[in-house]
Design a protein that fits this description.
Elements (H helix, E strand, L loop, with lengths): L1 E9 L5 E9 L6 E6 L7 H13 L11 E6 L3 H5 L26 H10 L6 H18 L1 H9 L18 H13 L5 E14 L2 E4 L7 H9 L22 H9 L3 E10 L3 H17 L5 H14 L4 H23 L1
Parallel strand pairs: 3-4, 3-5, 5-7
Antiparallel strand pairs: 1-2, 2-4, 6-7
Helix pairs in contact: 1-11, 3-5, 4-5, 9-10
Bound molecules: zinc ion.
Length: about 325
C-alpha cells in the first residue's frame, strides 16, 4: 500500500514534492518496523538507499510472520529537493519536536556565536577568520560548549543554523498525521530514523536519544546487545543538551507498549567540515545565488558532506542497516 502526501511547496525545478508512505504486510499488524528517511532533507540520499535496499534485497519481505514494515520516504521533502538539511521554514526538523506553546529553551552559546556562524559575506577570508574564531571559542570554553552552542538547537534566530522553529513545521505535522493514521493499533514498534554526517566515516552508530533509564533505551540496549550509543556521544553532548528531537516524540505519540527506536547515524567527513558545509548552505539560501558558480560549489559541498558517493561507504551503510533491521525483526518477533 502506497500513499503520496503532497508538500505545499515546489522543488528547484518547479516540481511537486511529496512525502511517501509504503506499508507492507497486514494493516492490522500489531508489530511494525518503521524506517524513516530524510528528517534532514539532504540525508535522504542515504535513507532512500536503505529503504530501497530493504525492498530490493527481499529483507522487508522476510519480516516476521504477521508483522508489517512501514517506510516513510522524505519526511522533509523540501530539504531533500533543495539539497538542504533544513525544512522550508529553515528549521532543523530534529529540533522541532517540542511543545511550542510551552516556550523554548535558551541557547546562550548560540546567541553569542550567531554572527560568526552566519556572516552575511562568504569568501575565503571570511571563512578563515570565522573558523579561527570558532576554534578559539572551543579552546576557551571546551569542545562540548562549542558543540552544544552550534548543534544543540536554538530558537532565537530564524535565519540561523540549528534553528528548531517556534511553531510546528509542515514536516512535523505531516509525520504526526502519518503516525496517527497508521500506527494507532501498533503494540510493538521498532523505529529506525536514518541520518548522516556525524561520527567516523562509514560507521553507523545506533544513537538512542533517550535518557539512559528510559524504557526505550533499556530495551534497545538489550535488543542490540549493547551495540548502540546511549547519547549522542559523538557530538560531545548529553541527551539533556538536545531539545525537540523526534524519536522520543514519536514514541510518546505512538504509545505502543513495546518500543525500540534509534537514530541510525552514519559518519561521513570530519565534523568541522560538516559544520562548514551547513554554514555555507545557510549563507547561500539567505544571501547568495543558487544559480551561480559559488551556489553550485556550495551545493556540491553540502551533498558531499552528507552523502559520500563511494561504493565502500554505501556498502558499509547497507551492511549496518541490514544488521539493524534483522535485530529489530528478531525483537519484534520476540
Ligand atoms: Zn541528520
Amino acid at each position: 500500500m502506497l500513499e503520496a502526501r503532497p508538500n505545499p511547496n515546489a522543488g528547484p525545478g518547479g516540481e511537486a514534492l511529496f512525502c511517501d508512505v509504503a506499508w507492507l504486510g497486514p494493516r492490522s499488524a500489531s508489530a511494525v518496523l518503521v524506517v524513516l528517511s530524510g528528517t534532514h532533507g539532504i540525508e535522504c540520499f542515504c535513507g532512500s538507499g536503505v529503504q530501497l535496499g530493504l525492498l530490493q534485497s527481499g529483507l522487508a519481505a522476510a519480516r516476521p510472520a504477521g508483522s508489517a514494515v512501514m517506510l516513510v520516504h522524505a519526511l522533509n521533502p523540501y530539504g531533500f529537493a533543495w539539497q538542504r538539511r533544513v525544512t522550508e521554514e529553515n528549521v532543523d526538523l530534529n529540533r522541532n519536536f517540542l511543545d511550542h506553546a510551552a516556550g523554548h529553551p535558551d541557547n546562550p552559546g548560540y546567541r553569542a556565536l550567531h554572527p560568526l556562524l552566519c556572516p552575511t559575506e562568504w569568501n575565503d577570508a571570511v571563512i578563515a577568520e570565522t573558523e579561527a574564531a570558532l576554534e578559539g571559542y572551543a579552546r576557551e570554553n571546551g569542545m562540548a560548549a562549542l558543540r552544544k552552542a552550534v548543534s544543540g538547537g536554538q530558537y532565537s534566530h530564524a535565519d540561523g543554523i540549528s534553528f528548531g522553529g517556534t511553531r510546528d513545521t509542515w514536516a512535523k505535522s505531516n509525520l504526526e498525521a502519518v503516525l496517527d493514521a497508521y500506527l494507532g493499533a501498533a503494540e510493538s514498534v521498532g523505529l529506525i530514523d536514518v541520518h548522516t554526517g556525524l561520527g567516523p566515516h562509514g560507521f553507523g552508530d545506533r544513537l538512542l536519544p533517550f535518557l539512559p533509564d528510559d524504557p526505550a533505551a533499556v530495551l534497545a540496549r538489550e535488543w542490540f546487545a549493547g551495540d548502540c550509543t546511549d547519547q549522542p556521544a559523538g557530538a560531545h553532548m548529553t541527551v539533556t543538551d538536545l531539545h525537540g528531537v523526534s524519536p522520543p516524540a514519536i514514541r510518546d505519540r505512538i504509545d505502543a507498549p513495546v518500543f525500540v527506536g534509534t537514530a541510525l547515524e552514519y559518519g561521513t567527513i570530519p565534523m568541522p567540515e560538516v559544520r562548514l558545509a551547513m554554514r555555507a548552505d545557510n549563507w547561500l539560501h539567505h544571501h547568495g545565488q543558487l544559480d551561480s558558480p559559488k551556489g553550485r560549489a556550495i551545493k556540491a559541498q553540502i551533498r558531499a558532506a552528507f552523502y559520500p558517493e563511494t561504493v565502500a561507504w554505501k556498502t558499509q551503510v547497507w551492511e549496518r542497516a541490514e544488521e539493524t533491521v534483522g535485530t529489530l525483526f528478531r525483537g519484534l518477533a520476540g
